[in-house]
What does this fold into?
Amino acid sequence: MTFLYINSDQMGSGDPVLGKKLLKSFLSEMAKSDVQIDVIGFVNSVVSLTTEGSDVIESLKAMEEKVPRLQVAEPVWIT
It folds into this structure.
């Protein structure tokens, strides 16, 4: 099983503008590729990438047909 884990709205830890462009480009290329992804997981604040208006929503919609499961999980606070 191939699991793509997304826990940040950018790639790398340098310039945030560049990091966001890199993530957008990566997801766009994954949407066009023949790589089989079984699950894409979005955690914490990154769940916002899965909503309308997101910079990557078009790539995610393109992957929807190929990826059987998009899993969105918000943090659970344990007290």
